[in-house]
Amino acid sequence: MKMVLLIGILLMGIKFLAYFFTHSSAILTDALESVVNVLAGVLALFSLYYAAKPKDEDHPYGHGKIEFISAGVEGGMITLAGIIMSVNGLMSFFYPHSLTHVDIGFYLTLLSGFINYILAKILIRQGIRLHSSTLVADGKHLLSDTWSSLALVIGLVIIYFTQWFWLDYAITILLGILIIYTGVQLIKESVFNLLDKIDYARIEKLINIINNNRRDAWIDIHNLRILKYGSVIHVDGHLTLPWYFSLEEAHKEVDDLDKIVKQTLNQEIEFFIHTDPCVSNSCTICLIKDCKVRKQAFVKKLNWNLQNILPDSKHKA
């Protein structure tokens, strides 16, 4: 992350150099966003350091949620920068100016856009691998910056051949709007994570893992919930087991479920599984064939899905 921050400072210098040669409002917009990138990089570096701190007495769930705060603050800075840039582009229509050395600006912008693209792909890939919201948010931000640079390069080519300097102001406004959209999306995602909004894709993946590795003794699972604290996933749920299982047998089943999910997802997960004893209605979906205390006939195997595994109630056929 330190190297990314240093490269971000270098890119900021390249973009301001391009503005120095061209006096382009659109390039200035791109350069000012790089200032935001650098500030966001400093914040991201701190949040990654803080999120990696071990759990303590004051933070029993760890410090991972600071990554969501960091992403939200970054989104706020990006949105503010986009608004300033759009206003700057609009004002340029009333106070127009000529551009110089458009060719130099073209090459410098193309170079910065290419470097941004490489960095964005690295950050997103690392963020997904490490389950880091901060790295993914930074990568998405840089990726949007890449498309901004691409649009800017195309605009500079058109301006170079047509001398339509007003196009520079129009591009500035469009880039500002794109940046605002990116910032708002980051804020939205950050707020959803802080409010523990359900991630249906993640919980459906967990359900598929449980279904594919199902044990006969796992009669029922319900009230399943997932919370995310930075890179750590917390899973709550109720697992219905045969009422005659000893405490040791019940613990083994929970431990097996824990290991299966962790090995499949390859991610740090904390399980808080509450075990329930089966009741007579459970017999209708119980897969244990040689159960000697069965009270009702088996009716059908219940496949768990989003509709039946989330509510807090035992199932029956």
Query: What count of structural domains?
Result: 2
Second CATH tier, the architecture of the largest domain: Up-down Bundle
Largest sheet: 3 strands, mixed
CATH class of the largest domain: Mainly Alpha
Q: What's the CATH H-level homologous superfamily of the largest domain?
A: Cation efflux protein transmembrane domain
* Topology as a string of helices (H) and strands (E): HHHHHHHEEHEH
CATH fold name of the largest domain, please? Alpha-lytic protease prodomain-like
**Mean pLDDT over the residues:** 83
Q: What is the strand arrangement across the widest sheet?
A: 1-2-3
**Helix content, binned percent:** 55-70%
What is the terminal separation in angstroms? 53 Å
How many H/I helical runs? 9
Form type: elongated
Strand proportion, as a percent range, falls in: 5-15%
Query: Poorly predicted ranges (pLDDT <50, ≥5 residues)?
Result: none
Strand elements, count: 3
Structure classification? mainly alpha
Radius of gyration, rounded? 27 Å
